[in-house]
Amino acid sequence: MKWLKRFRLIVHTVWYFGLINLLDGQLRHPLLRKLLSCLPESKETLEYSNAVRLRLALEHLGPIFVKLGQVLSTRPDVVGPEYASELAKLQDRVPAFDGGIAIAQVEKAFGKPIEQIYFDFEREPIASASIAQVHQAHLFNEDGTQGQKVAIKVLRPDIKPVIEQDLALMHWGAVWLEKLFRDGKRLKPREVVKEFDKYLHDELDLMHEAANASQLGRQFENSAMLIVPKVYFDYCSRNVMTMEWMDGTPISDTETLIAKGIDLKKLARFGVEIFFTQVFKNGFFHADMHPGNIFVADDGRYIALDFGIVGTLDEYDKRYLAVNFLAFFNRDYHRVATAHIESGWVPADTRAEELESAVRTVCEPIFNRPLSQISFGLILMRLFETSRRFNVEIQPQLVLLQKTLLNIEGLGRQLDPNLDLWATAKPFLVNWMNEQMGWKALKRNLEKEMPDWANILPSLPRKVNEVLSHSNDQSRNGLQKQLQYNQIIMVIIAILLIFILLK
């Protein structure tokens, strides 16, 4: 059976790369530890550190495990900083599949020959990864001549069964990891695999990626900082995605950027501004901003590619981030603590002074550096680590944001080592907080809710009468009556405010 053969390969890989040593001290049962000690020791890779051996093992197991390692690299809270740093080196590179197979995939998706779909189609791919590869092509103009140059992303054939097999083994392994290992529950292996499962299945549906690209493009339409390629939905399916071709210089090729006269300091600031615009204005951010997915146009704007993974934030998440970032950089640790308690991120009986002390202990050393060396991503990571000590479950979207923020910071400081992220980000945070508070915010929210108020207001007299009648039928308990009258007063005040503000 295929799954059994794959399982044997995984076990052999764990032994060959000397990862048994990692397991030995973690096993709960003495009998299992004794059995492992009887295995012959592999000496092939013992000159490497444990983190390096883990990276090599994942590379040996293939692209799905490489992707798992990439996800783990964003979770230093789970694997530790050393492993996270090493796993971040994993590259998603696999040999391309035959161009003829890609053409067959496209023809199957649209039900007609490739010659009727595209004006031309390059059989040789220009890029290849574990899930899909990219080909160059041209669309037709209305008169049948050569039209828009496009990039065609084609899903690997028969990739889903391979992924499902590996995911099934990962889910099975996560259950046993939690049962057999001392730190099994703390590391939350089932939660990590579940998160990874979601990422992979999102990437398997190219319509999902096309929709992400379209939304990001709409939000940055006519932007002076970012170009998002146009998606041609008439040429998209679950297995094929067609988007505008983008010419640019890889963000990592700083020599070429300098030769083209690109202002690297300005580019670094743009990266931070784009990120905070996505987070605090749109609540929708590109969550896979590594150097391979970012190019620079000759006019100095960023070009974003690969939209398989995005993050979303609601108003609650945005307020949490803004309050904490502002409090952190003002070194107001008491405000950080009270913000956590007020928002329900920690148990209600948590003493603010205890949380404040824990946050101060972690963050004060960070602020003994110049602002140009302070990492937002590191601060967020330290905050999450401290929060977990107080039984806080950090939401996946915030972990995704932390990973993206670390990527943005790395890119920004590669372009400008003296980049002061705080000076660039503070206006966004202050403006966002100002917009969320005060009379203007109240008026905006009331205007937004006007369609609902149009239905509610006519029925208010009847509802007030029901409340009063109900109070007469119930116990004459003073507190109960007071609460009911308070409700009526609040409704009346709300109505008056609406008429005053919208007059």
TrEMBL record:
The UniProt transmembrane annotation reads 483-502
- Record keywords: Lyase included? no
InterPro entries, per database record: ABC1_dom, Kinase-like_dom_sf, Prot_kinase_dom, UbiB, UbiB_bact, UbiB_kinase
The record places domain Protein kinase at 120-489
Q: Which UniProt keywords apply?
A: ATP-binding, Cell inner membrane, Cell membrane, Kinase, Membrane, Nucleotide-binding, Transferase, Transmembrane, Transmembrane helix, Ubiquinone, Ubiquinone biosynthesis
Q: Specify the pathway.
A: Cofactor biosynthesis; ubiquinone biosynthesis [regulation]
- Which Pfam families does the record match to this protein? ABC1
Entries under PROSITE patterns matching the protein? PROTEIN_KINASE_DOM
Q: What family does the entry list?
A: Belongs to the protein kinase superfamily. ADCK protein kinase family.
Name of the protein in its database record: Ubiquinone biosynthesis regulatory protein kinase UbiB
From the broadest rank down, the organism's phylogenetic lineage runs: Bacteria, Pseudomonadati, Pseudomonadota, Betaproteobacteria, Neisseriales
Its gene name is: ubiB
